[in-house]
Design a protein that fits this description.
There is one protein chain. By secondary structure, this protein is α/β, with parallel strands linked by helices. It has two domains: 11-177, Rossmann fold; 181-371, Up-down Bundle (Dehydroquinate synthase-like, alpha domain). The protein has helices spanning 22-29, 40-44, 47-57, 74-78, 81-84, 96-111, 183-200, 208-230, 235-255, 259-271, 275-290, 295-304, 310-323, 340-349, 362-371; strands at residues 11-14, 33-37, 61-65, 89-94, 120-121, 131-135, 147-152, 157-162, 170-173. The strands form two sheets. Strands 1-9-6-4-2-3 form a six-stranded parallel beta sheet, sandwiched between helices. A three-stranded mixed beta sheet has the order 5-8-7. Helix 7 (183-200) runs parallel beside helix 9 (235-255), helix 8 (208-230) runs antiparallel to helix 9 and helix 14 crosses helix 15. The protein is globular. It starts with 10 loop residues before the first strand and ends with a helix. The structure holds fe (ii) ion. Residues 192, 195-196, 261, 275, 279 line the site of fe (ii) ion (FE2).
Length: 373
């Protein structure tokens, strides 16, 4: 076994009713003023009202920034800054976009400067202010990762900020917050989690402890994601998917991701498509390409998916995306086919490609992207 390191900076409170622990977490630390970072969908779903009610009951002075957008832009993050000033704690309430926005905003309110100053690895100069993450989707794992993905529209790129200082202090993961998600969002975000797990287990930086988490996540997602898509009120399925998403987030915080995410980030940056959708499309194609670099791992993954061999495992992943109703090609998403080269170029620039177990030449990337159509 190769030596490895593993550190979880985030306290996790998990389970049905976990949101009710918000008061305890705030009280323990003496935090009396907060900014809730969220989006309008979360507000309309009535989830913001639940958090506001808790804060009022606790006499916590709070404000709300609901300007979070999908694939958060630098501008949408900076727009929250005036409201964040003077608040002790940020409470991110939403999917990956809300949590990533809050992470970047937290760095901004603590260190000043510009969001893109912290592009890349460990560029945040020091600890940030307090941050509590309350996910309302199950997939990104952002509640426990040191990563914020930020869109730079003028560059048509999704840029990673990766720093241990960005990880939330506390994650309150309450599966009841996901019951109102529509099937298409459940399916796409769930496939993001499966992509985290499968990629984390097969990168150049794979490691035994991340493997344990990833394997558990794969098994649970395979069993429970179709159930959660079929019946959003199936609380056991929702709980298992939320747990799997958390595990996959912990796994890829240490072992990182690869080719599927490189392609997904390029597509998200260019066309503002939902991240999970892009992952679901790219994952089986990336698995086929990477199979020869990690045959034993893919065999293991296949068994977790109830399949006899690696090829059948990959076919199972593809079938799963079909069963849960996700698009099967970029054509269905109206991505223009003449953009193949452009997508491939951007995917090759994405940091995730550094961890991919098999080298990807420009020609290979072009061929892979073409397959997605
Ligand atoms: Fe992802």
């Amino acid at each position: 076994m190769e030596p490895f390191s593993f550190q979880l900076p985030t306290k996790v409170v998990f389970g049905v009713g976990a949101l009710g622990n918000l008061g305890t977490e705030l009280d323990e630390r003496g935090w009396r003023s907060a900014l809730i970072v969220t989006d309008k969908g979360v507000r309309e779903a009535g989830l913001l009202a639940r958090v506001e009610e808790l804060l009022r009951a606790l006499n916590v002075d709070y404000a709300v920034y609901d300007g979070v957008v999908p694939n958060p832009t630098v501008r949408s993050i900076e727009a929250g800054l005036p409201l964040a000033r003077g608040r002790e704690v940020l409470i991110a309430l939403g999917g990956g976009s809300a949590i990533d926005t809050a992470k970047a905003l937290n760095a901004l309110r603590t260190h000043g400067g510009h969001v893109l100053d912290w592009e890349g690895h460990e560029a945040v100069p020091g600890p940030c202010g307090p941050l509590i993450a309350v996910p309302t989707t199950a997939g990104t794992g952002s509640e426990v990762t040191p990563i914020a993905m930020v869109s730079a529209p003028e560059r048509h790129q999704k840029v990673p900020l990766v720093s241990r200082h960005l990880a939330p202090d506390v994650a309150l993961v309450d599966p009841t917050l996901t019951v109102s998600l529509p099937p298409a969002v459940t399916a796409a975000t769930g496939m993001d989690a499966l992509t985290h797990a499968i990629e984390a287990a097969t990168t150049l930086t794979e490691q035994p402890l991340a493997d344990l988490l990833a394997f558990q996540a794969i098994e649970r997602l395979h069993e429970f994601l179709p159930r959660a898509v079929r019946d959003g009120r199936d609380l056991e399925a929702r709980t298992q998917v939320a747990f799997a998403s958390l595990l996959a987030g912990m796994a890829f915080s240490h072992a990182w991701v690869g080719l599927a995410h490189a392609i997904a980030h390029a597509l998200g940056g260019l066309y503002d498509l939902p991240h999970g959708l892009c992952c679901a499309l790219a994952l089986p194609v990336a698995m086929e390409y990477n199979l020869e670099a990690k045959p034993d791992k893919y065999q293991r993954i296949a068994r977790l998916l109830g399949q006899p061999d690696a090829e059948a495992g990959i076919a199972r992943v593809r079938a799963l995306t079909r069963e849960i109703g996700l698009p099967q090609s970029l054509r269905e998403l109206n991505v223009p086919e003449h953009d193949v080269e452009r997508i491939a170029e951007l995917a090759l620039l994405d940091g995730s490609i550094l961890f991919n177990p098999r080298e990807v030449t420009p020609e290979a990337m072009t061929a892979l992207v073409r397959k997605l159509f």
